[in-house]
Amino acid sequence: MNTSWKRLNVGVVGGGIGGMSVAIALRRAGHEVIIYERSDFAGEVGASVSCAANGTRWLHEWGVDIAKGDPVVLKKLINRDWKTGEPVSVYSLDDYEKRWGYVYNMFHRQYMHSMLKDSALEEEGEGIPAKLLVNHKCRDIDLKSNKITFENGKIVHHDLIIGADGIGSAVRGILGIRPEKRPSDSSCLHANVDADEAAKLGLVNYSQDSALEYWGGQEGKWDKIVLSPCNGGKLLSYYCFFPRDQGDFTTQAWGAESLPVEDLLKPYPQLDRQVLEHLAIGKEIQPWRLWVHDPYPYIHQGNVCLLGDAGHPMMPHQSQGACMAIEDAAALGILFNKKYFNGDVAQALAAYEEVRLPRVTRVQSAAAKAAYNINERIGFSVNKDTPTYKVEDPKKVLTIEEMNAYDMYRDIEEKLAAKRGGLYTEKFICGLPIGLELPSGIIIGAH
């Protein structure tokens, strides 16, 4: 054990998936954690959420009871023709667990949150159980004294403060980051379809595919349907994208009354009838605001840092938003554990920024590209034999190898060695093994 390690009193602003994940990671690293949630309960809104191997691996490492999340284990990615529904590009995940050590899970957001919350707060498990305080909306943070002031008048002091307060983050503004953002050129409506109800009506049974399925999304077109199964396949979660000029929902928010089903069907007169019949029985039809954010110049100051959507909001088109928040949490769990933390919080957070910012910025950029070109999406990005295959730059596509061959421990060791004047001899660069050849033709470490 590192003799200069010390237990920290950690304040996490925000009790969503990112906040619960970092509470688990820091609890396991030996710290005391209090989560402050602005609303009167800690939960999530929305439906399905992807957790690829680069996220699932940390759930295993943290000892999270994944079965509580009732996931669907994905077996393939399917891109279908907009009009006929015939598969255009298929990326098999049959050897996924064998290659990467972990499965690709698809969770219902509320179930995933509940699973993580149990892990963060329950008595069982490593470390001191985290505490959750609701109705604590962050008003200000004194970056010199590390005191948080809440709207309810309460003032608290913490050794380390983490802003996990989502896309509308208050902590981000306190750190002086004013995001350049603009509405996406596409709008999105979300709907849930009960798989049993669809089957009773004699509709095609997509739940049997165990797949993330896409209609459309080809070069330059904003029309795209994304289907992700969750709750063990019982619920089909549909994300329906269309040009913003056909419906602008940038002022809308989740949690309002369901919109009429006509709003969901209207943009798609030529859509494959099989999936259109599914959408016709869609429920809980909600708009999803889509904003494009430019990368932030930094994600920490002093003893305060950002995590998840607070630090790097991204478009949903790489299905990596939750994984990036989980990776952020994992990085903090490692940097502040008994092996690596030397008592210098600001130094650990500087390393956190160096480890996380390049990786999340890469995914953020790739997600914006995949918004209007499905071939830029991880998986489809290497299906070069597809007749419709076309990408902006074949050398720059994001690949599954980059996401899943990444070793965060090596990345952190490399950054800490540089900061502390140590020697780094591992054969990794930024967490990727030297000599790894990506399907794009790039070889890691080659000049």
UniProtKB/TrEMBL annotation:
GO molecular function, one term: monooxygenase activity
Pfam families: FAD_binding_3
FAD-binding domain residues: 8-364
Superkingdom of source: Eukaryota
Coiled coil stretches, renumbered: none
Keywords: FAD, Flavoprotein, Monooxygenase, Oxidoreductase
Family membership: Belongs to the paxM FAD-dependent monooxygenase family.
UniProt name for this protein: FAD-binding domain-containing protein
Species annotation: Penicillium cosmopolitanum
